[in-house]
Amino acid sequence: MQTISVKNIRALESEVIARGDTEEILIGRAASGALAALRDFLAAPERHRHARHAIYLAGKGNNGADAVKLAQLAGSTFFESGVFFAANPAECSAKLIPCRPLEDFLTYPIPPDSIVIDGLLGIGVSEGPLREPLHSVIEKVNQSGMPVVSLDLPSGIHGDSGVGPESVTADLTVTFGRPKSGLFRADGRIKSGRIAVVDIQLGEKTFPGDGFEVVFAADAAKVLRRIDADTHKNRRGTVLAIGSCPRYRNALLLSARAALRSGAGKVIASFGATPSASMPAALIAGDWSIAENTASNATLLGPGMGLDQTAKTLFEKITSSSRTEALVIDADALTILSQNPRNFSGRNVLLTPHPGEAERLRRAVDLPPTPDRFQLACALSKAYGAAVILKGRQSVAAMPDGRFAVNSSGTAALATAGSGDVLAGLAASFLAQGIGLFEAAKLSMFFHGRAGELGPMRSLMADDLPERFPEVFAELTFFA
């Protein structure tokens, strides 16, 4: 799905209204979709228990109207109570919703089990300091510690640039029509939380040169097709995974489990040290001596393999081998690559660096530093002649020809040891199953992020992620 500028989303809305829809109809669609997203967000009983009181903050424009309509639809059945603060109390009164002036929120004692619905500004913000009372209202929201759902954009975030240091920090942003570019840039990248897109029926018109690709569930689902009825394990792809020195003897096991759970027909793990954790019975395992002579549809090289001379020699042999159709280079193998960089043009190679590894890869080929993650991912991809997944909040997949896509899924729960090993195993599995390089990179990062979203925020371990894969498949495709 392509992002869109504020100018062009307004143009689309105007065109739809000119064809016969009214602003009220669009607001109704937006509010209905927001309610569905809100219900999904609070579906877990433990979450709903912490969000019994709703506080709606409504600005003067359409964003405020969205919040008021959402309050109408949610009614008293969804939350125990609702309190409404609006810049235009008359609008609430017209909807038969009692409300208070927005300024009253500043002295309102927020109940401890509240959720805040932010409908203050939406796309109606320009860069620069916020005026009062908006600045103080947003400051109180952010200091409250309550979960926040923003409508269209976190209030204070510019829809194009993402700039908004004084903006609301949202846990969920429900954006309408198309995703706004500002949700993935600058402050917007950090402040938007999870992102859901609501279709308000603006049509399929596109604007050449506007926006960039973002991977949502519908995009990931297109890649997952029916599995042939007469298939067998070799047709479903063989993954060879290589890594795990004595210090990190279980790292490769995380990757192997991920590859098995994500549909690879066969996974062969080549361990530098025997794992201390139990191995799946379906896993074919051996030491590093099997790595050189094992053919595969995709090879994963690096998780926990170490940096000693034995590892470096194995790296050279595997990266120069023609016994695999695709190669995923991760973790320690990326560090070895940064010590002796080369270009993989013409081969199916995927690099999966976290920001620290990306910095080492950047310095190794003398690329100029940049704070722009899109630029960095694309520059690394071109320099190394390989696809790249630059990991982190809103991971970026890039190709040497300049194409890139940003991931919409994920949560801070994924910031845990071994999470990247799971992602690498996913990528190798999807490549082994015959999914193209760019599509496999995009699917892997979305799938990994969604698995994280389905788990707990504070207690998730990387070991838990593969057990979430069946649920992610079931969400994305009938052919789960």
Q: For the largest beta sheet, what order do the strands appear in spatially?
A: 8-17-16-15-14-13-12-9-10-11
The CATH topology of the largest domain: UDP-N-acetylmuramoyl-L-alanine:D-glutamate ligase
CATH architecture of the largest domain: 3-Layer(aba) Sandwich
**CATH homology group of the largest domain:** Ribokinase
Number of domains: 2
Helix content bin? 25-40%
Q: What's the main sheet like? A: 10 strands, mixed
Large-scale geometry: elongated
What is the C-level CATH assignment of the largest domain? Alpha Beta
Quick structural gist:
This protein has helices spanning 6-18, 23-41, 45-48, 62-78, 89-94, 134-144, 186-191, 217-221, 251-261, 309-319, 332-339, 355-364, 373-384, 419-432, 437-453, 465-476, and strands at residues 53-58, 81-86, 100-101, 114-119, 148-151, 172-176, 194-198, 213-215, 238-243, 266-271, 284-287, 298-301, 327-329, 349-351, 387-390, 396-398, 404-407. The chain is an alpha/beta fold.
Describe this structure in words.
With 480 residues, this protein is of the alpha/beta class. It has 2 domains: 206 residues, Rossmann fold (3-Layer(aba) Sandwich), CATH 3.40.50; 239 residues, 3-Layer(aba) Sandwich (UDP-N-acetylmuramoyl-L-alanine:D-glutamate ligase). It has a 10-stranded mixed β-sheet, with helices on both faces. The protein has a 7-stranded parallel β-sheet with strand order 3-2-1-4-5-6-7. Strand 1, helix 4 and strand 2 form a beta-alpha-beta unit. Helix 11 packs parallel to helix 12, helix 14 crosses helix 15 and helix 15 packs across helix 16. The chain starts with 5 loop residues before the first helix and ends with a helix.
